[in-house]
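Notes from the pairing session

We agreed to fold both candidates in a single pass and log them together. This is the raw record for the first candidate, unedited. Please don't reformat it; downstream parsing expects exactly this layout.

Candidate A
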Amino acid sequence: MGGLGTSELIVIAVVALILFGPSKIPEFARSLGRAVSQFKKGLKDGIDEADSTHDVAKKDDHGPKA
């Protein structure tokens, strides 16, 4: 349930071809690839930034102050 099979992918491809035409599909695929790449890069940068912030917070924590 919820998975895409071969026949569903073929139907989606045919509908996309009809809607956008053969010249727009490669352009759309490139744009989608760039978007996914930038999303992954942003996610990685956010994780790296969170890790560095966490490390700084650990170094600043020297226990309770009297």
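Candidate B (folded immediately after A)
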Amino acid sequence: MRIIGFILMFMLGISNIVIARRLPPKNVPGGLFNYRAFKLPSFTIYCLANTIAFLGIYTGVFPLC
């Protein structure tokens, strides 16, 4: 399985370097991460709940030794 993972990483790395964009990049205010979205309390609670749920799923599967 490890060998297949390295083959996939190598092939995806090549494809990400060689691929051409179809559309020109958009100039979005705030750059890659938009901090203004977290001013909405509902969105902030949603993000925190998803993070805690994601961490909770894998904590039970892989207990600490």
